[in-house]
TrEMBL record:
Sorted UniProt keywords: NAD, Oxidoreductase
Xref: Gene3D superfamilies: NAD(P)-binding Rossmann-like Domain
Protein name listed in UniProt: NAD(P)-dependent oxidoreductase
One Pfam family it belongs to: 2-Hacid_dh_C
Lineage: Bacteria, Pseudomonadati, Pseudomonadota, Gammaproteobacteria, Alteromonadales
Record bears the keyword NAD: yes
Keyword check for NAD: yes
Residue span, D-isomer specific 2-hydroxyacid dehydrogenase NAD-binding domain: 2-69
Length: 72
């Protein structure tokens, strides 16, 4: 992790994926901007997200991802 790679998977980068794309993150949890992913899932731009890592592990029970459509 560096300052340049923290949240590199942000709204600007993820929104460049084609409509209906899937996001797979097996790198570092800090690479992903959680709120950006949720926004793009809710808009339908991103169809599905497969996440093996999170900013906080284990993922807290109250995290938004647990209630998120398209999150696996």
């Amino acid at each position: 992790m560096t300052a340049q790679t923290t949240n590199i998977l942000n709204y600007n980068n993820l929104s460049q994926l084609p409509q209906g794309a899937a996001v797979i993150n097996v790198a570092r949890g800090e690479h992903l901007d959680d709120d950006a992913l949720i926004t793009l899932l809710n808009s339908g731009h991103i169809d599905t997200a497969y996440l093996d890592v999170f900013k906080q592990e284990p993922l807290p029970k109250e995290h938004k991802f647990w209630q998120q459509k398209g999150f696996l």
